[in-house]
């Protein structure tokens, strides 16, 4: 990819932003008790999650955030957050739909981030890093704004791993000469499939404590036991 040939389709970017806005609003609407948010708070979390990934992507690439160059981004993400608020009770009953939307949104942000990085001349590995940061950036900022532990840093359902694998597939396809659109579609599909399977089958990376216990067991097994 070369910079003159690269242009993120506006509809694709706005779709990713809209999905992120809905996801953020649904997440924020679910809190009860002292953590419950008012309408403005829910809307802010939706906007942060919808725009966060793209903002982080553009900051890493030292480019002007595209969300600030058009009215469409803020209008789309605000409308999406409002839809997420109004239909929260409906969406909460459709858990499978929410998981699917989340997986597709992660894939789209990762694909757009990796594609833009490659187009601007970054090597494959840094481009994968940019794409993965774009994919998880909205969720990361959401947790920071909410004062919660950052989800991707704890045992979970391969949130960041799914994004990284999808972005890596895109980078490999680009190296092989595959054009941007089919490579991006493949990235989204791979990311979504890994994420959905991880949620359905509760797959996650091993816990650090489990690895440590295993290491201790291996080391202590080599210590000779002297019987009286």
TrEMBL record:
Residues 10-88, 101-173 form the Glycine transporter domain. The keyword Transmembrane helix applies. The keyword Cell membrane applies. Pfam families: Gly_transporter. It is found in: Cell membrane. It is a multi-pass membrane protein. Keywords: Cell membrane, Membrane, Transmembrane, Transmembrane helix. The chain crosses the membrane at residues 6-27, 39-60, 72-91, 98-119, 125-145, 157-177, 183-205. Belongs to the UPF0126 family. This is TRIC cation channel family protein.
């Amino acid at each position: 990819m070369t910079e003159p040939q690269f242009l993120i389709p506006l509809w694709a970017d706005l779709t990713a932003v809209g999905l992120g806005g809905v996801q953020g609003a649904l997440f924020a609407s679910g809190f009860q008790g002292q953590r419950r948010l008012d309408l403005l708070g829910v809307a802010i979390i939706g906007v942060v999650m919808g725009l966060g990934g793209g903002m982080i992507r553009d900051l890493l690439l030292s480019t002007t955030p595209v969300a600030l160059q058009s009215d469409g981004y803020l209008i789309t993400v605000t409308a999406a957050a409002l839809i997420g608020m109004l239909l929260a009770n409906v969406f909460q009953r459709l858990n499978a739909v929410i998981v699917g939307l989340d997986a597709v949104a992660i894939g789209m942000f990762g694909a757009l981030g990796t594609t833009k990085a490659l187009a601007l001349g970054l090597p494959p590995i840094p481009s994968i890093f940019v794409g993965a940061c774009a994919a998880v950036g909205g969720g990361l900022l959401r947790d920071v704004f909410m004062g919660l532990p950052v989800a991707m840093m704890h045992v979970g359902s391969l949130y960041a791993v799914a994004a990284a694998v999808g972005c890596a597939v895109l980078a490999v396809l680009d190296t092989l000469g595959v054009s941007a659109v089919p490579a991006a579609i493949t990235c989204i599909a791979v990311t979504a499939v890994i994420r959905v399977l991880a949620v359905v089958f509760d797959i996650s990376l091993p816990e650090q404590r489990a690895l440590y216990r295993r290491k201790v067991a291996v080391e202590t097994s080599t210590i000779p036991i002297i019987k009286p």
